[in-house]
Amino acid sequence: MADDPLRVRVRAPAKINLTLHVTGRRDDGYHLLDSLVVFADVGDRLEFTADGPLSLSVSGAEGEGLDSGPSNLVLRAAALAGAEGGRFRLEKNLPVSSGIGGGSADAAAAVRALRAAGGAALDDDDLAGRLLALGADIPVCLSCCPARMRGIGEKLTPIPDLPGLHAVLVNPRVALSTPDVFRALVCPENAPMPQSVPTDLNRGELISWLKLQRNDLQSPALSLVPAIGDALAALEAERDCLMARMSGSGATCFGLFDHAASAKTVAARLSGRHPHWWVTATQLGDMQPLSRARVS
Question: How far apart are CA 58 and CA 62, in angstroms?
Fold first, then answer.
């Protein structure tokens, strides 16, 4: 009897931009960023089975209507990594086009799965450069570790000692095109974050520092999707919310809280008030253990 095919399961945590400063624009049109990125303990799940032709199937609460053909970032990343075959099965739990790296996280998870299965043919430097062309968030999503992301996404500085954060993520169920948000940005030349990101802070001190930073894409996103303002207002109206901000190019927003219990209570309350929104309580920080492959 033939051996069962190798199967690898990985997680694709949501990526959260705690800050996002747009500092310039290159001659080729790509914008330059300075962003502090962390990861959530919620995300998509990806399974890779090392047999058959290269293919993708999609399930999950957020998978309806998602293209599973060659244009999907999972298959495009797998092809760039040198995969010659294998079946991917994506459980889609994160809303699409939502500013939390769903597609990029899935692409990075595909590469991690292939590496665990011994199927990634390119070395890390060559592969990272190729993946960047698919999406600026893919390189940072490969590690799922807190990092300062600069350039167009290729310059990564790990920030390993940030305290974990309790958060509520809210998406008003409006997909938002990243290129459209950048086109609506009035000024692409803004100040970067301070030269060094402090790492010896407790949770309260970190949140105080974050309040002094920005997401330069929040205003242009609001001009396109006013419902983002409703999500931010709902978070800010909660007594225990320490700060609220949009992640990435939107439309997902996050609120930060002192305690996990407070975040869970607020998430339940907002879900009840806005049943059409996507709302979840989560922990933000270093999700590397959740991204490790399980092989069977």
Answer: 9
